[in-house]
Amino acid sequence: MPKSSFPKDKIRVLLLENIHPAAVARFETESYHLESLSSSLDEEELCRKIESVHLLGIRSKTQITPRVLQHARRLWAIGCFCIGTNQVDLAQARRQGVAVFNAPYSNTRSVAELVIGEIIMLLRRIFPKSLAAHNKIWDKSSAGCFEVRGKTLGIIGYGHIGSQVSILAEALGMEVIYYDIAEKLPMGNAKAVHSLVDLLHRAEVVTLHVPEDESTINMISAAQFKLMKPGSYLLNLSRGRNVNLSDLRQALREGRLAGAAIDVFPAEPQSNQEAFESELQGLPNVILTPHIGGSTLESQEDIGVKTSEKLITYMNTGATIGSVNFPEVQLPVQGMRHRVLHIHKNVPGVVSTFSQEFARFGVNIESQILKTEEDIGYMVTDVDRLIDRQIIADLKKLEVTIKVRVLY
């Protein structure tokens, strides 16, 4: 790279939570200064560690709070090597000029397949029968065991995963209904219902596929369990606080629900070495899994490749296609031009001020793109000659400037 660029071996990348080797290899190919850890870090540790980091890679456990971001003065981007991004304060990251990327489709199939597998295991009571067999008990009874064919599946949240579950369930002969706060195109013969109450009244199996926000925390609690059909089943492979587990335990013990499968929990161990405890432990026909919905070799490799590629493309070209909190910008790389990235407050007059700074030094702008999103603007500019350091220093001093970076 030309001398105007920040040296690649000075770009510090921190990967947490055992991110797939495919991502590690991709960053190593770029000659970045890489550190990869197998576990997450608590807020105090992360505040110390992040001060020198330019790119951060996390999964779902690591929490990127406003306090963490205050210490991230050199941070340019965060890669969420998962589907969800609610573990990051997206608005604060945007205000600080930190782009956030994820891989929204990579583990869709893995989660959907596990949902279908667990539905079959719950309705056939596979876990209790397997445990009995391990304990030398021959339980060949068909009591409480059902085919999934003909049963009604209620899907809460009809996004990428919910709609994929819908397709697979219908192929097994299930009747599929779904509820989503946004209008969604039904897959196959699935039918939308107008309210969560309607879905809970009608479904024999309920599965959640929603993010975690104020509207979805404890969205399934005692009141909702009372609306569900007696002998129904609940699955949660979305977010740990979507279901009130104490209320779920009560519904299971009372016999209102015949079984449940839970993959996510309000509090989860930070590593495989920590003990796991849940009020659902020991209950019959309750499948507990350690947040493995998307944990297949195929999905983790795909997440590793796709998320790392987005981060590297952003660092190399400034493109923000696929960012969840930034304006999506992509300016084609052409010839021997030099590129400047300018992240600024979304106020009038920035383009004029920016152009005047270049004109003062006789620099001609050859191509440029600007997009805004909420409180920030993002401008990518190609110019005809090497950028003088004084121009960058002057741009950084502007009141509207959040971040400036010369790419090449």
Q: How is this structure best described in words?
A:
- By secondary structure, the chain is an alpha/beta fold.
- It has 3 domains: 1-107 and 298-326, NAD(P)-binding Rossmann-like Domain (Rossmann fold), CATH 3.40.50.720; 108-288, 3-Layer(aba) Sandwich (Rossmann fold), CATH 3.40.50; 328-408, Alpha-Beta Plaits.
- Helix content is 31%, strand content 20%.
- It is built from 13 helices and 16 strands.
- The strands form 3 sheets. A 7-stranded parallel beta sheet has the order 8-7-6-9-10-11-12, with helices on both faces. A 5-stranded parallel beta sheet has the order 2-1-3-4-5. Strands 14-15-13-16 form a 4-stranded antiparallel beta sheet, covered by helices on one side.
- Strand 4 (77-80), helix 4 and strand 5 (99-102) form a beta-alpha-beta unit.
- The longest helix is centred in the C-terminal third of the chain and has 21 residues, at 297-317.
- The radius of gyration is 25 Å and the shape is elongated.
- The mean pLDDT is 95.
